[in-house]
Amino acid sequence: MRFSSDLLRLCVAVALFCSCTAPVQAETANSEKIDAEVKLAEGASHSELVFEASPYYTNIDYNVPLDNNPIPMITSDSEAVIYRELIKDSLIPRYMVLEASVYPLPWLSSYIKAHSPYLYRQGELGHSGINLFESATAGFQEPWAVSAFFGNVAKLNRPREKRQGNNYGYTGYLFSAGNRHIKNNTFVADDWYEFEWKIKGNIDYPDEKLYWSFRAGARFNENPGVNDVTYISLHRSNLDLRYSFLEWLENANYQLRMHFLQHGAEMVRLELIAGKKVPLPGHRYAPTLDIGFVWSSPNEYSGALRDLRGNTTTLVFRPSLEF
């Protein structure tokens, strides 16, 4: 199917504009006093269904307690205290979380490349070698996944905060699996599975949002062309409408991910992304811009999937609006 040039330009612009980051959550800073209290949530232990949606990461979780204790509540405005309480006693799992997730924009970008290559080429910036579709979704290597988490789960809340949303923290062990791999926005048949230890959290209030995910693990692939790796991933992103643009430690997004071959420990992939958010006085949204790169070695793949060009670097460029 062929589209008019004006429509193509519009599609590319919309795809780029919609390439907002996964829900980004922010920390409340309180330099005068750290009011930390860990208490049990009211009510008995029970299963819960949690749904989160964003252009990059949409998931549905089913929280299942493994004992009769209720989900604890961590009430604090200090990230360090939240991390400490989540890690405490995390060696013994008390909760199971079953999750199904999909990555909408990476999936859509790969689908367009496979089924409408003419539209996909409209994202190319001249002869620069940069494609806007690829830049907006670089770093995602699977379109969907299912997982099982075993560890600790806690509800998160600010001191003196009466509103309680789907604010949760997780620490423990995660088993994930899928049947597709994404290489340069191309679907590759691959039954993969991975095991990792992680600490993850999500806080969402009208005036502040905070998201963090720190993890280390190993991935195994049935496709012989996709080499098995171990990895380290650090991601923290926050938005606080009470801080100005000049507060560089606030309203920022940082992501670092490194892949190493399981045999030989050679680093074969590096993702480094940083972003800044611009709070607007009187508005509950903020323009954001993430910029970075994804570097990969040809040794990340084998056989027909190996990149004969040698090392490659892909620009990451993600303008968006954070609400």
Describe this structure in words.
Strand 7 (168-183) and strand 8 form a beta hairpin. The chain has one domain (5-322). The chain has helices spanning 5-17, 79-87, 104-115, 117-121, 132-137, and strands at 37-40, 48-52, 58-65, 72-75, 95-102, 144-157, 168-183, 186-204, 208-221, 229-240, 252-261, 267-277, 286-296, 312-322. The chain is mostly beta strands. The longest helix has 13 residues, at 5-17. The chain has five helices and 14 strands. The chain is globular. It is 14% helix and 46% strand. Strands 1, 2, 3, 4, 5, 6, 7, 8, 9, 10, 11, 12, 13 and 14 form a 14-stranded mixed beta sheet that branches.
Quick tags:
5 helices; 323 residues; mainly beta; 14 strands; disordered N terminus; single chain; globular; 14-stranded mixed beta sheet
Layout of helices and strands, plus pairs?
Elements: H1 5-17, E1 37-40, E2 48-52, E3 58-65, E4 72-75, H2 79-87, E5 95-102, H3 104-115, H4 117-121, H5 132-137, E6 144-157, E7 168-183, E8 186-204, E9 208-221, E10 229-240, E11 252-261, E12 267-277, E13 286-296, E14 312-322
Parallel strand pairs: 4-6
Antiparallel strand pairs: 1-4, 2-3, 3-5, 5-6, 6-7, 7-8, 8-9, 9-10, 10-11, 11-12, 12-13, 13-14
